[in-house]
Protein backbone atom coordinates (compact mmCIF):
# COMPACT_ATOMS: atom_id res chain seq x y z
CA UNK A 1 0.00 0.00 0.00
CA UNK A 2 1.21 3.48 -0.87
CA UNK A 3 -0.76 6.57 0.13
CA UNK A 4 -4.50 6.95 0.79
CA UNK A 5 -6.74 9.73 -0.52
CA UNK A 6 -10.41 10.68 -0.92
CA UNK A 7 -12.29 11.28 -4.15
CA UNK A 8 -15.92 12.42 -4.57
CA UNK A 9 -18.44 10.40 -6.57
CA UNK A 10 -21.29 11.67 -8.72
CA UNK A 11 -23.78 11.55 -5.84
CA UNK A 12 -21.40 13.20 -3.40
CA UNK A 13 -20.50 10.00 -1.56
CA UNK A 14 -16.73 9.86 -1.03
CA UNK A 15 -14.50 7.13 -2.35
CA UNK A 16 -11.41 6.00 -0.49
CA UNK A 17 -8.48 5.56 -2.87
CA UNK A 18 -5.58 3.29 -1.94
CA UNK A 19 -2.42 3.34 -4.05
CA UNK A 20 -1.06 -0.07 -5.00
CA UNK A 21 2.40 -1.12 -6.11
CA UNK A 22 3.01 -0.91 -9.84
CA UNK A 23 0.98 2.25 -10.48
CA UNK A 24 -2.54 0.90 -9.84
CA UNK A 25 -5.09 1.67 -7.15
CA UNK A 26 -8.09 0.28 -5.26
CA UNK A 27 -11.26 2.23 -4.47
CA UNK A 28 -13.82 1.75 -1.70
CA UNK A 29 -17.12 3.61 -1.66
CA UNK A 30 -18.50 4.81 1.65
CA UNK A 31 -22.23 4.10 1.90
CA UNK A 32 -24.70 6.27 3.77
CA UNK A 33 -25.93 3.19 5.65
CA UNK A 34 -24.36 3.11 9.08
CA UNK A 35 -23.03 -0.21 10.29
CA UNK A 36 -22.93 -1.06 14.01
CA UNK A 37 -19.97 -3.14 15.10
CA UNK A 38 -19.97 -5.83 17.76
CA UNK A 39 -18.61 -3.40 20.34
CA UNK A 40 -21.50 -1.00 19.73
CA UNK A 41 -19.55 1.57 17.71
CA UNK A 42 -21.19 2.94 14.58
CA UNK A 43 -19.43 3.77 11.32
CA UNK A 44 -19.99 4.04 7.60
CA UNK A 45 -20.45 0.81 5.71
CA UNK A 46 -17.81 0.03 3.07
CA UNK A 47 -18.49 -1.48 -0.33
CA UNK A 48 -16.46 -4.24 -1.96
CA UNK A 49 -13.05 -2.94 -3.08
CA UNK A 50 -12.62 -2.33 -6.81
CA UNK A 51 -9.21 -2.76 -8.38
CA UNK A 52 -8.27 -0.32 -11.16
CA UNK A 53 -5.51 -1.82 -13.33
CA UNK A 54 -4.45 1.23 -15.28
CA UNK A 55 -3.26 0.39 -18.79
CA UNK A 56 0.15 2.03 -18.48
CA UNK A 57 0.88 0.07 -15.28
CA UNK A 58 1.43 -3.09 -17.35
CA UNK A 59 4.68 -1.63 -18.67
CA UNK A 60 6.40 -1.21 -15.30
CA UNK A 61 7.53 -3.31 -12.38
CA UNK A 62 4.78 -4.53 -10.07
CA UNK A 63 6.88 -3.83 -7.00
CA UNK A 64 7.51 -0.12 -7.57
CA UNK A 65 5.76 1.98 -4.92
CA UNK A 66 2.99 4.43 -5.83
CA UNK A 67 1.33 7.56 -4.47
CA UNK A 68 -2.24 8.70 -5.16
CA UNK A 69 -4.16 11.97 -4.83
CA UNK A 70 -7.88 12.40 -5.53
CA UNK A 71 -10.29 15.30 -5.76
CA UNK A 72 -8.34 17.25 -8.37
CA UNK A 73 -10.44 20.10 -9.78
CA UNK A 74 -10.36 20.47 -13.55
CA UNK A 75 -12.25 19.48 -16.69
CA UNK A 76 -13.18 16.12 -18.20
CA UNK A 77 -14.64 15.92 -21.71
CA UNK A 78 -15.10 19.67 -21.65
CA UNK A 79 -17.15 19.65 -18.44
CA UNK A 80 -16.10 20.79 -14.94
CA UNK A 81 -14.93 17.86 -12.83
CA UNK A 82 -13.75 17.56 -9.23
CA UNK A 83 -12.95 13.84 -9.23
CA UNK A 84 -9.74 13.65 -11.26
CA UNK A 85 -7.02 11.44 -9.79
CA UNK A 86 -3.24 11.71 -9.89
CA UNK A 87 -1.01 8.65 -9.56
CA UNK A 88 2.78 8.87 -9.21
CA UNK A 89 5.31 6.05 -9.06
CA UNK A 90 8.80 5.90 -7.64
CA UNK A 91 10.22 5.14 -11.08
CA UNK A 92 9.21 8.62 -12.27
CA UNK A 93 5.77 8.19 -13.85
CA UNK A 94 3.03 10.76 -13.26
CA UNK A 95 -0.49 9.97 -14.48
CA UNK A 96 -3.74 11.91 -14.64
CA UNK A 97 -6.62 9.46 -14.27
CA UNK A 98 -10.41 9.45 -14.37
CA UNK A 99 -11.77 6.13 -13.14
CA UNK A 100 -9.99 3.47 -15.19
CA UNK A 101 -9.04 5.89 -17.96
CA UNK A 102 -5.52 7.30 -18.09
CA UNK A 103 -5.89 10.79 -19.57
CA UNK A 104 -2.14 11.26 -19.91
CA UNK A 105 1.12 9.88 -18.61
CA UNK A 106 4.20 11.98 -17.87
CA UNK A 107 7.63 10.37 -17.48
CA UNK A 108 10.54 11.99 -15.64
CA UNK A 109 14.03 10.80 -14.74
CA UNK A 110 13.68 11.31 -10.97
CA UNK A 111 12.13 9.23 -8.19
CA UNK A 112 8.78 10.81 -7.29
CA UNK A 113 7.72 10.23 -3.70
CA UNK A 114 5.15 12.95 -2.97
CA UNK A 115 2.35 14.67 -4.91
CA UNK A 116 0.09 17.61 -4.11
CA UNK A 117 -2.37 19.87 -5.91
CA UNK A 118 -2.46 23.64 -6.17
CA UNK A 119 -4.14 26.23 -8.40
CA UNK A 120 -1.08 28.14 -9.57
CA UNK A 121 -2.74 30.66 -11.90
CA UNK A 122 -6.12 31.13 -10.20
CA UNK A 123 -8.16 29.79 -13.13
CA UNK A 124 -10.13 27.17 -11.20
CA UNK A 125 -8.05 24.23 -12.47
CA UNK A 126 -5.57 22.69 -10.07
CA UNK A 127 -2.07 21.82 -11.17
CA UNK A 128 -0.15 18.75 -10.01
CA UNK A 129 2.94 19.34 -7.88
CA UNK A 130 5.30 16.36 -7.70
CA UNK A 131 8.52 16.18 -5.70
CA UNK A 132 11.45 13.77 -5.92
CA UNK A 133 13.81 12.68 -3.16
CA UNK A 134 16.64 14.81 -4.57
CA UNK A 135 14.51 17.99 -4.50
CA UNK A 136 13.53 18.07 -8.17
CA UNK A 137 10.03 19.56 -8.25
CA UNK A 138 7.58 19.37 -11.15
CA UNK A 139 4.50 21.52 -11.74
CA UNK A 140 2.25 19.99 -14.39
CA UNK A 141 -1.04 21.42 -15.59
CA UNK A 142 -3.91 19.40 -17.01
CA UNK A 143 -2.74 20.04 -20.57
CA UNK A 144 0.46 18.13 -19.68
CA UNK A 145 2.57 21.29 -19.79
CA UNK A 146 5.23 21.37 -17.12
CA UNK A 147 7.61 23.61 -15.22
CA UNK A 148 10.35 22.22 -13.01
CA UNK A 149 13.01 23.51 -10.67
CA UNK A 150 15.67 22.05 -8.41
CA UNK A 151 15.30 22.47 -4.66
CA UNK A 152 18.68 22.95 -2.99
CA UNK A 153 18.69 19.85 -0.76
CA UNK A 154 17.46 16.27 -0.46
CA UNK A 155 13.85 16.10 0.73
CA UNK A 156 12.35 13.84 3.38
CA UNK A 157 8.80 15.25 3.22
CA UNK A 158 6.91 17.61 0.91
CA UNK A 159 3.47 19.17 0.63
CA UNK A 160 1.79 22.08 -1.14
CA UNK A 161 -1.40 24.07 -0.64
CA UNK A 162 -2.76 27.34 0.67
CA UNK A 163 -1.37 28.10 4.11
CA UNK A 164 -1.62 31.04 6.48
CA UNK A 165 1.65 32.89 6.17
CA UNK A 166 0.18 35.85 8.04
CA UNK A 167 -3.10 36.28 9.98
CA UNK A 168 -6.19 35.93 7.74
CA UNK A 169 -4.02 35.63 4.63
CA UNK A 170 -3.68 32.21 3.02
CA UNK A 171 -1.19 31.99 0.18
CA UNK A 172 -0.15 29.21 -2.22
CA UNK A 173 2.92 27.62 -0.70
CA UNK A 174 5.42 24.82 -1.22
CA UNK A 175 6.80 23.23 1.95
CA UNK A 176 9.95 21.11 2.06
CA UNK A 177 11.41 19.16 4.98
CA UNK A 178 15.04 18.13 4.61
CA UNK A 179 17.14 15.42 6.22
CA UNK A 180 19.00 18.19 8.07
CA UNK A 181 15.92 18.90 10.23
CA UNK A 182 15.03 22.09 8.40
CA UNK A 183 11.66 23.24 7.06
CA UNK A 184 11.55 25.54 4.04
CA UNK A 185 8.37 27.41 3.12
CA UNK A 186 8.11 29.10 -0.28
CA UNK A 187 4.91 31.13 -0.38
CA UNK A 188 2.99 33.33 -2.82
CA UNK A 189 3.78 30.83 -5.58
CA UNK A 190 1.89 31.86 -8.72
CA UNK A 191 2.43 31.25 -12.44
CA UNK A 192 0.13 33.72 -14.23
CA UNK A 193 1.10 32.52 -17.72
CA UNK A 194 1.45 28.80 -17.08
CA UNK A 195 -0.44 27.52 -20.17
CA UNK A 196 1.81 27.53 -23.22
CA UNK A 197 -0.05 28.87 -26.25
CA UNK A 198 1.17 29.28 -29.79
CA UNK A 199 1.10 32.53 -31.72
CA UNK A 200 -1.89 31.25 -33.72
CA UNK A 201 -3.83 30.52 -30.52
CA UNK A 202 -3.09 33.97 -29.15
CA UNK A 203 -4.23 35.73 -32.32
CA UNK A 204 -7.45 33.69 -32.41
CA UNK A 205 -8.36 35.12 -29.01
CA UNK A 206 -7.96 38.71 -30.23
CA UNK A 207 -11.38 40.26 -31.02
CA UNK A 208 -10.19 42.02 -34.20
CA UNK A 209 -8.46 39.03 -35.80
CA UNK A 210 -11.44 37.73 -37.80
CA UNK A 211 -12.21 41.21 -39.16
CA UNK A 212 -8.64 41.77 -40.31
CA UNK A 213 -8.34 38.30 -41.86
CA UNK A 214 -11.50 38.87 -43.92
CA UNK A 215 -9.55 41.47 -45.92
CA UNK A 216 -7.17 38.82 -47.26
CA UNK A 217 -8.04 36.18 -49.90
CA UNK A 218 -7.14 33.23 -47.67
CA UNK A 219 -8.95 30.49 -45.81
CA UNK A 220 -8.85 31.63 -42.17
CA UNK A 221 -9.44 28.04 -41.03
CA UNK A 222 -6.30 26.82 -42.79
CA UNK A 223 -3.48 26.92 -40.24
CA UNK A 224 -0.82 26.72 -42.93
CA UNK A 225 -2.20 29.76 -44.76
CA UNK A 226 -2.39 31.71 -41.51
CA UNK A 227 1.19 30.79 -40.61
CA UNK A 228 2.41 31.97 -44.04
CA UNK A 229 0.49 35.23 -43.71
CA UNK A 230 1.80 35.98 -40.22
CA UNK A 231 5.32 35.08 -41.32
CA UNK A 232 5.05 37.55 -44.21
CA UNK A 233 3.69 40.29 -41.91
CA UNK A 234 6.47 39.78 -39.37
CA UNK A 235 9.47 38.97 -41.53
CA UNK A 236 8.60 39.92 -45.10
CA UNK A 237 9.13 37.73 -48.14
CA UNK A 238 11.76 35.00 -47.51
CA UNK A 239 15.08 35.63 -49.23
CA UNK A 240 15.00 32.34 -51.14
CA UNK A 241 11.55 33.19 -52.50
CA UNK A 242 12.78 36.64 -53.53
CA UNK A 243 15.72 35.09 -55.38
CA UNK A 244 13.41 32.67 -57.20
CA UNK A 245 11.08 35.49 -58.25
CA UNK A 246 14.01 37.61 -59.47
CA UNK A 247 15.33 34.66 -61.46
CA UNK A 248 11.92 34.14 -63.06
CA UNK A 249 11.70 37.84 -64.00
CA UNK A 250 15.16 37.75 -65.58
CA UNK A 251 14.25 34.61 -67.49
CA UNK A 252 11.11 36.25 -68.86
CA UNK A 253 13.05 39.30 -70.02
TrEMBL record:
Pfam families: Itfg2. This is KICSTOR complex protein ITFG2. GO terms for biological process: regulation of TOR signaling. It comes from Araneus ventricosus. InterPro entries: KICSTOR_ITFG2 (IPR031793), Quinoprotein_ADH-like_sf (IPR011047).
Amino acid sequence: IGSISLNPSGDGTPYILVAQAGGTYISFQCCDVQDEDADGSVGLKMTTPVHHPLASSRMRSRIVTSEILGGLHGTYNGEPCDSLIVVATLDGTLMLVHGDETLWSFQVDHQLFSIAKLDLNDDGEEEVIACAWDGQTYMVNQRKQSVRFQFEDSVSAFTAGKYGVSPSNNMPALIYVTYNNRIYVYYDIMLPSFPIRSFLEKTEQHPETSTLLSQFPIDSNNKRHLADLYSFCLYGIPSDLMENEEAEVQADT
